[in-house]
Amino acid sequence: MLGAVDYFTDATCSVPDVNDTVLNCIGEQEKALCKDNGGICIIEQDGYYVVSIICVILGALTLFGFVKPHVKNLQSKFVYICSNIILFLLYSFMFACRFSIRIGSEEMGSIWSSF
């Protein structure tokens, strides 16, 4: 993405002695050439802001078009799986309690019947 900054940057070299020559001043070599000729790089449009806006737009499109629907899908599956696990544990607990009560009452019945 940083290479795109140079692509969207618009800069020219201003040389005080020569007014009719326009040099680009985007890359490092061009900046060094401008400086060697006694010029100053004037940035007319900084590509950083253009690339930042493009990245924000692409990020928002990715978030709302891909990530959010997949997260909602996974959440619904997770809730379904968790609810089934909770129901299984609840029914297992109810069965275990009912079974232990039945065994307990049979034991108590046999104890009371001996008196």
Tell me the total number of β-strands. 3
Gross morphology: rod-shaped
- Unreliable stretches covering 5 or more consecutive residues: none
The whole-angstrom Rg is: 38 Å
Describe the protein in words.
- The model has no long low-confidence stretch (mean pLDDT 78).
- It contains 3 helices and 3 strands, in the order αββαβα.
- Helix 1 (2-8) runs antiparallel to helix 3 (47-113).
- It has helices at residues 2-8, 28-36, 47-113, and strands at residues 10-14, 23-24, 40-45.
- It has 115 residues and is mostly helical.
- It has a domain at 2-45.
- A 3-stranded antiparallel beta sheet has the order 2-1-3.
Briefly summarize what is shown.
The chain is mostly helical and 115 residues long. Helices cover 72% and strands 11% of the residues.
What tags apply to this protein structure?
115 residues, 3-stranded antiparallel β-sheet, 3 strands, 72% helix
Topology summary:
Elements lengths: L1 H7 L1 E5 L8 E2 L3 H9 L3 E6 L1 H67 L2
Antiparallel strand pairs: 1-2, 1-3
